[in-house]
Specification:
Distance between the termini: 30 Å
Largest sheet: 10 strands, mixed
Strand content: 15-25%
CATH topology of one domain: Adenylosuccinate Synthetase, subunit A, domain 2
Bound molecules: guanosine-5'-diphosphate, 6-O-phosphoryl inosine monophosphate, magnesium ion
Strand order of the largest sheet: 9-7-5-2-10-1-11-15-19-20
Number of strands: 20
Structural class: alpha/beta
CATH superfamily of one domain: Adenylosuccinate Synthetase, subunit A, domain 2
Shape: globular
CATH architecture of one domain: Orthogonal Bundle
Helix content: 25-40%
Length: about 425
């Protein structure tokens, strides 16, 4: 089966660490969407590593790692990342595979991202400026270039055609930036990409599954940034929910097993767009400082707020989440009270469903309050030893989402994961009760 790890909020839930934690049980780890807008942090030999395009299973020597067709790949950023990973002695020629159908991000995509954001002024998306939106636009607009094209004789000409089209668009935007350094770096990185294992990802993964391998699909971004169901237009340009796994890897829905959703014990967002539980006061600032909430890709301060169960319920429904991982629970150690939003009060009344568009909407979150535990929990190594107040908070989340919080992450370290009930085995939760 293909088990899936998804971010359930606005990204940065701790997916990288959790994928690394689970990776030992899987033979294949596969990224299925997004690109270098992702920043997945993990610790290897106590050293911090941030991965952007390479799957987070890469530090487990027995895993094979796949960059799926649903990913958009920037050769320059990818080649830098290869250097980082190889410095740890990882043999990428042996354990990394790239779908020929993954689309390329070219320098003018990045320039277009900048130009588009600039043109939006205060309405800007807050993009990571990695060229994600323009690359996916070319994919769906049927103008894109794919990794496999790099080995085709017509690549040069096709690249120039696309570049020229982009230059005309940049003229329209009156873009004045200098793209030549980006283009030089792009050219210099193409040979490395050509020398990697460029394969048919869909045949590769289905063969692995036929042979009995366990596959873990690694989501990037978060469900509330999904292009269809997120806080549109303040979203990314890919399908970040479980459905994206099928199109982003070429596997059938019947192959999808556990859907493991990662949520922080509170909430963060980086970039623009609605964030109903955002705290603009000292509590929000304390969450940012205690949680070290600064972007792994851009270094931007993350907006912080309380856990939003309206949003969490919504995305559990969209993806059929079967297990929750609650990360960064330790960040709440010094907070009292702790809150979770159970409804939105809008001019039309109180709602617990996600409305059509919450951007700019007048929302007063309705909170349930919990006494803080005011104890350090980083050093705890068994779920049972967690403070009673934290367990009650977790129980509340389980009741409201009807999904078990099977894992609690109480620190950034590789081994800081607590398993509820000591049951690590895969177990599908009962069907949600039918109304
Ligand atoms: P991702 O994009 O979902 O992989 O998450 P990021 O790597 O962007 O951000 C998560 C941050 O939280 C990283 O700095 C992690 O090292 C850190 N982190 C992950 N899990 C925990 C946790 O349980 N507790 C604490 N304190 N930090 C964590
Ligand atoms: P990981 O995988 C947090 C946000 C950007 C912006 C919006 C669109 O590390 O969780 P884009 O560059 O995709 O055009 O930006 O999405 N965003 C992320 N926020 N974590 C991420 O990835 C993100 N990737 C994109 O901040 O608001
Ligand atoms: Mg991140």
């Amino acid at each position: 089966m293909v088990d899936v790890i998804l971010g359930l909020q606005w990204g940065d839930e701790g997916k990288g660490k959790i994928v690394d934690y689970f990776a030992g049980r899987y033979q294949v780890i596969a990224r299925f969407q997004g690109g270098p807008n992702a920043g997945h942090t993990l610790y290897v030999e106590d050293q911090k590593v941030v991965l952007h395009t390479i799957p987070s299973g890469v530090f487990h020597p027995h895993t094979r790692n796949l960059i799926g067709n649903g990913v958009v790949l920037d050769p320059e950023s990818f080649s830098k990342e290869c250097g980082t990973v190889e410095a740890f002695g990882v043999d990428l020629k042996k354990n990394l595979f790239i779908s020929e159908k993954a689309h390329l991000i070219i320098p003018t995509h990045r320039a277009l991202d900048m130009a588009s954001e600039e043109s939006k002024g205060l309405e800007k998306i807050g993009s990571t400026l990695k060229g994600i939106g323009p690359a996916y636009m070319d994919k769906t607009g049927r103008n894109g270039l794919r990794v496999g094209d790099l080995k085709q004789p017509g690549f040069r000409a096709a690249y120039q055609r696309l570049r020229q089209m982009h230059l005309r668009m940049l003229d329209y935007y009156r873009f004045s930036g200098d793209i030549s350094p980006m283009e030089e770096a792009f050219e210099a990185s193409l040979d490395l990409l050509r020398s990697m294992n460029l394969i048919s990802g869909e045949y590769f993964i289905n063969k692995c599954l036929d042979e009995g391998d366990q596959v873990l699909a690694e989501g990037a971004q978060g469900s509330m940034l999904d292009v269809d169901f997120g806080t549109y237009p303040y979203v990314t340009s890919s399908s970040t929910i479980s459905a994206g796994v099928c199109t982003g890897l070429g596997v059938s829905p019947s192959r999808v097993g556990e859907v493991i959703g990662v949520t922080k014990a509170y909430c963060t967002r980086v970039g623009s767009g609605a964030f109903p539980t955002e705290l603009l006061d000292g509590v929000g600032e304390s969450l940012r400082v205690t949680g070290n909430e600064f972007g792994a890709t851009t270094g931007r301060p993350r907006r912080c707020g309380w856990l939003d169960l309206v949003a969490l319920n919504y995305v559990c429904m969209l993806s059929g989440v079967t297990q929750l991982v609650m990360t960064k629970s330790d960040v709440l150690d010094g907070f009292d009270p702790i809150r979770a939003c159970t409804g939105y009060r809008c001019p039309e009344g109180e709602i617990s469903r996600m409305p059509f568009d919450i951007n700019g909407m007048e929302i007063k979150p309705q909170y349930e309050s919990f006494p803080g535990w005011l104890t350090e929990t980083n050093a705890i190594s068994r779920f049972e030893e967690l403070p009673q107040q934290m367990k009650e908070f977790i129980r509340f989340v389980e009741d409201r989402t009807r999904v078990p919080v099977k894992y609690v992450s109480n620190g950034p370290g590789r081994d800081q994961v607590l398993v509820q009930d000591g049951k690590e085995g895969k177990k599908r939760v009962p069907e949600r009760p039918k109304k």
